[in-house]
């Protein structure tokens, strides 16, 4: 089945994100204080994101929470339908899986906690980045960019 790549990439993105959040937030207890991994390039810093990426459009209401869940699910279904109606390359299937898996991982956070758990902070070259994110955000971003870059390429 051609869509196995989509399924496996999505499942991998979902599990990697959820496992990393569990380990950093619940086992390493990043909420008790920042954890320097490769300072200042990589620092684990606790964050609760009630908005979209980088904490934009923060909504601290139940309506905003469920609206963001609905939007994430709609985008995931839309990407899935789009990929099934085209003849996607293997790279597009992987990218679609990363996007969908990352989006669903953040949906699970919103359902369980009411917000998305974030813990990654990256700064460099004297610039102090105040934003935190998670691996699901990385997968969503990489998947979306990959879908744009590889769309229209010959299926492999």
* Secondary-structure element series: HEEHHEH
* Strand elements, count: 3
- Large-scale geometry: globular
- As a percent range, the share of strand residues is 5-15%
Q: Span from first to last CA?
A: 14 Å
Main sheet, how many strands, which sense, barrel? 3 strands, antiparallel
Question: Unreliable segments (pLDDT under 50, ≥5 consecutive)?
Answer: none
Describe this structure in words.
- The chain has 156 residues and is mostly helical.
- The chain has a domain at 48-121 and 130-151.
- It has helices at 4-27, 62-85, 90-113, 135-150, and strands spanning 35-38, 42-49, 116-121.
- Helix 2 (62-85) packs antiparallel against helix 3 and helix 3 packs antiparallel against helix 4.
- It is globular, with a radius of gyration of 16 Å.
- The two termini are 14 Å apart.
Outline of this structure?
With 156 residues, this protein is mainly α. The chain has 4 helices and 3 strands; from the N terminus they run αββααβα. It has a domain at 48-121 and 130-151.
